[in-house]
Design brief:
The protein is of the alpha+beta class. Helix content is 45%, strand content 14%. It contains 11 helices and 10 strands. The strands form 3 sheets. It has a 5-stranded antiparallel sheet with strand order 1-2-3-5-4. Helix 6 packs across helix 9, helix 6 packs parallel to helix 11 and helix 9 packs across helix 11. The longest helix has 28 residues.
């Protein structure tokens, strides 16, 4: 399945009057899992250009929400500034941050969970985002989309969905106030300029439960128990069984939702990446947790029992 034709660099450059007649050099940036990204140097000034990927409507990406939230994150001091927004092309031109793209290995260094918690606290204290985010609702939308496009859902996925309402109920007993969250914090969405961390790529951002944000990034980064506990203590100023249990349940929900995202991508994406293997890996981790000996305890602790 193919989406609309993506804009070319020439089309993008033509929409920015300030670039007319100037020397333009464009270099693709590898590694994006949803969109093509390009570094454009105009004379001597570099910019980051996010070009929309195909069929991202199936992934529930709202480009107006993304643009609004990218600007809000910049105001909060954690994201790059929007230099140009080309809504007719769904293109964002961002300031170029002279910073290193992070990896799971670099974010496993001592003290990194605390640094991550600090930048998340700044984001969460910033301006509200345009829309709300709830992974349970998004998972329902993804399952419908997966069925529409004929995506392959991992074996056992639908059988385990009966357990999700138990997670929802436990988290609802003592809910936390929603905050502006990124919600897709894999390692490559963190940048380090040597003095501070930055957060990029706000496609899935929205106001939501901060423990989903914390659990999601712990899951994406493969954090062990000690790092999860450090993240919790650094963010909340305390490490409690209730907060840790909320994070653990949200780590499961992160895998529940992004499993389907990967299954859809395996069907529609033109990016050279093994999304099927990624979906299977995510689901295996979620199923192990749902079937594991700690699941009932996390439900009780998250509810304050």
């Amino acid at each position: 399945m193919k989406g609309p034709t993506q804009p070319t660099i020439d089309q993008i450059v033509a929409r920015v009057p300030e670039w007319a007649g100037r020397a333009i050099e464009a270099t693709p940036i590898p590694g994006g899992l949803t969109n093509p990204n390009v570094r454009i140097v105009v004379d001597d000034t570099p910019y980051f250009v996010r070009i929309p990927g195909p069929s991202t409507d199936l992934l529930a990406v709202d480009r107006a929400n993304e643009a609004h939230n990218t600007r809000a994150a910049a105001v909060a001091g954690v994201g790059p500034r929007v230099v140009h927004h080309l809504p007719e092309l769904d293109v964002l031109v961002l300031e170029w941050l002279p910073a290193r793209t992070m990896s799971n290995a670099s974010l496993a260094a001592p003290g990194m969970p605390t640094r991550i918690a600090e930048v998340l606290r700044r984001l969460h204290a910033g301006p509200r985002f345009a829309l709300d985010f709830d992974m349970v609702d998004l998972s329902h939308r993804y399952l419908d989309a997966a069925e529409r496009v004929g995506a392959t859902v991992p074996v056992g996925y639908r059988d385990h969905l009966r357990l999700v309402p138990r997670i929802v109920a436990a988290l609802a007993v003592r809910p936390l106030a929603s905050v502006p969250c990124h919600n897709d914090l894999l390692a490559e969405n963190y940048l380090d300029d040597g003095a501070r961390l930055w957060i990029v790529d706000y496609e899935y951002s929205g106001n939501g439960d901060p423990t989903f944000e914390l659990g999601n990034t712990c899951q994406e980064l493969g954090f062990d128990d000690a790092r999860v506990e450090e993240m919790c203590a650094a963010y909340f100023g305390q490490e409690s069984l209730e907060l840790l249990a909320r994070m653990r349940l949200q780590m499961i929900m992160s895998d529940v939702g992004w499993t389907l995202w990967a299954a859809i991508q395996a069907r529609v994406s033109t990016i050279d990446y093994d999304f099927t293997a990624w979906a299977e890996e995510r689901w295996a981790r979620a199923a192990t947790a749902l079937d594991g000996p700690d699941f009932k305890r996390w439900l009780a602790e998250a509810a304050g029992d």
